[in-house]
Amino acid sequence: MKGASHSRPIDILLVEDSPGDVRLAEEALREARIHNQLHVVNDGEKALDFLYRTNGFPDAARPDLILLDLNLPRKDGREVLQAVKSNQRLRRIPIVVLTTSDAEQDVLQSYDLHANCFITKPVDFDRFVDVIRHIEEFWLQTVRLPEE
Amino acid sequence: MDGLDLSAPIRAMRSEIVERHAALLDALSDAVFVVSARGTILYANVEASALLGYARGELDGQPVERLVPDPMRPAHRQRIQAYFRNPVRRPMGGAARLFACKADGTQLRVEISLSPFRVASTTVCLALLRDVTQETGFLELLRLRSAALEAAANGICITSPDGVILWVNPAFSQLTGFPEEEAVGSTPRILKSGRQSPDAYRALWDTICSGRVWHGELINRRRDGSEYIEEQTVTPVRDGNGAISHFIAVKTDVTARRRADDEVRRSAETLQQRTKELARSNEDLAQFAYAASHDLQEPLRMVSGFLQLLNKRYRSELNDEAREFIDFALDGAGRMKQLIDGLLDLSRVRTRGKELTEVDLSDVLDTALKLLGGAIRESNAQITYDALPRLRGDPAQLVQLFQNLLGNALKFRGDLPPRITVAAEPISGGWHVCVSDNGIGIDAAHQERIFEIFQRLHDRQRYAGAGMGLALCKRIVERHHGRIWVESEPGQGASFHFTLRAPLEQGGHAASP
Questions:
Q1: Do B337 and A18 touch (CB under 8 A)?
Q2: Which residue, of B50, B76, B271, B372, is most buried by count of CB atoms within 10 Å of its CB?
Q3: Residue A24 contacts residue A126 (beta carbons within 8 Å)
Q4: Considering only A11-15, B76-80, B135-139, B406-410, which range has the smallest mean pLDDT?
Q5: pTM metric for this prediction
Q6: Touching check for B320 and chain A: CB below 8 Å?
Q7: ipTM, interface predicted TM-score of the complex
């Protein structure tokens, strides 16, 4: 069983277009306790290619957790969310919407599209690290994820 | 001159009258006296006697002076003589007012006509009397009313039923520029300005011809071509048979008044427009402030985040100078964050303001106290409060308000542990709340500008903060239709007062929530 026993690294798919934010997430995850493998894509289309294992991602790992920004080029996060959560094979994967937006509308829409949770990126780096840690502790240690 | 005169000539004349003329005289419905050249009443007909209250025949042979009021008696004899010197048919007295004495001593206002007549070869005078007492009364009233019309400040114009002007008063001429001689005989068409639709005139005619009063305004033109606005009432006058005999038009120049009204209305419209523009401008500003602060967060995260990483990972590898640089940079980033957060909070008062609902201020205070729990314990503060009322408001914003004010009271404490009181009293339309502390106080010079954004009174080392809290409080209070101010003296603590009011029902406060 994954998660609790850490037999192999957790695969996390980060869908984020800002290189700065990617780097910060990487650094934050590095400080996290769990051994994880971070996969990064920069836009919505690549995210779906990765998940469907098409177009240059034939051997993509199946992520245990997706960190999804909403405002992305090509296909935006909302479309990715909708696609994944309506796909029988993929919808079990917990998706954490991690975005700069704090608009009420975005929150509602994300939950409507079955995001597992919505987090507004904090400005402070230490707090960002805390957030990543919380995500990790909750989704990867506390909750039980389905077998695949 | 008193005493009967029954001399022979008199008797002769009387006989002839009685024989030949009495029947005719008595049949007349006018009062007739037959008077001799010496002033003797030869005959008073039935009507004459009755008019003056005498029995039939009682006046015959009497001197006519008996009927003349005392003051006129002396001159009367001479008048008679003057008449008989040139006896012609004429009214008596000319313009003088004539009175006749009745048997009971009262007087009648009369008009008298005199005619010469021959009886028994002698010239006598037939005097016809008309009682004009009532007529005089009417004439007096008429004269009074005419004077009133003449003197009236309103222009008055009387026309025939088909609109021909019969009479105008001086005010009419002054108003329209048409002197009486030009107006009379003409019609009100002389005042047409051409700016009125034919429908307006038709409506006027229809109204008055059907016997109703018309009241309204017209744009008319004076004789000199200038235009003016006229407020007019036209009243039809009916004759004894109920038919319309005249129209009376009363006119007033309301040009000045209309112009003033227009000015007022235009000013009101401009004011309304400006208010709307201001509201829109404020809205735009609020949205801009929100968008700007929101968008600034992202680059700030980059700066702050990587500075912190730099600090964390490489501080030990840096020299003192580099460490100092990083510290300054981090400090700057930290303050920028505070400012942006403050701006966001400020703009969210409008953009995230909830509809005002029933709120219990005691609950609000409880929440604020809970949020400040740590700071309260840490400073050993004592907070006392009155029973607080229920009112209409935005609960989250009111919590922010109390949190800020209480937080400040805790932060800006003096050497003593903070003692804070919260009191409330009702005022018209709402409540007046006061948060007082025993802290360091505020100088009078600063008491207004502390409510502006980014205003700080102390250096950052001693008291942290972006200088946004009171600006936020001000905006929240304003959203609740109130005011906020401070009473304080340095070293004597501060009392922050604010009012919270329910919005007025209709057309009350112009400020948008």
A1: no
A2: B372
A3: no
A4: B135-139
A5: 0.53
A6: no
A7: 0.80
